[in-house]
Amino acid sequence: MTEAGTEHARIAFPATAEFASVGRVAVAGIALRLGIDVGQVESLRLAVSTSIEALAGDGTVTLLATWNDDSFELELTNPDAPGLDASELAGRLDDLGIPVTVSPNKVTLLLSR
To answer: Do the beta carbons of residue 68 and residue 3 sit within 8 Å?
Structure first.
């Protein structure tokens, strides 16, 4: 169930490098529609690309974007991923300045608006 004032979009695509552009384009389109700064949009695109790379392998990546007046959250999952090196991936994503939570098969990015 979605909270009042919160919207979301969900897409799923094969967990391969060839389909990473699907995630990047979707995130950029939503972020620009929300009026997020172009510099932050580029950081989000890089973070999504890095996350998809880490989740690549068998299965499907599901990207859930949730937003409201205060935040924009991205959750990328692949239950069939071999497992993420959480500390290494979190370090790479932290360098982009976007708060991140990493668990074995999920990456969550949160941007305040």
So the answer is: yes
The residue count of the chain comes to 113
Q: The tokens of 66 are what?
A: 């949730």
Angle between helices 86-94 and 38-55 (to 10 degrees): 160
Q: Which of 34, 17, 16, 18 is nearest to 112 (CA)?
A: 34
pLDDT at 34 over 70: yes
User: Measured between alpha carbons, how far is 21 from 3 in angstroms, rounded to an integer?
Assistant: 29
Write phi, then psi, for 2 (nearest 5 degrees). -100, 135
pTM of the entire predicted model: 0.91
* Among candidate residues 67, 60, 61, the one with its CA nearest the CA of residue 31: 67
* Domains, the chain, with CATH or none: 7-112 (3.30.565.10)
Question: Would you say residue 83 has pLDDT above 80?
Answer: no
Q: Which residues of 96-107 are buried (b: 16+ CB within 10 A; e: fewer)?
A: bebebebeebbb
Assign 86 a pLDDT band (cuts: 50, 70, 90).
Answer: confident
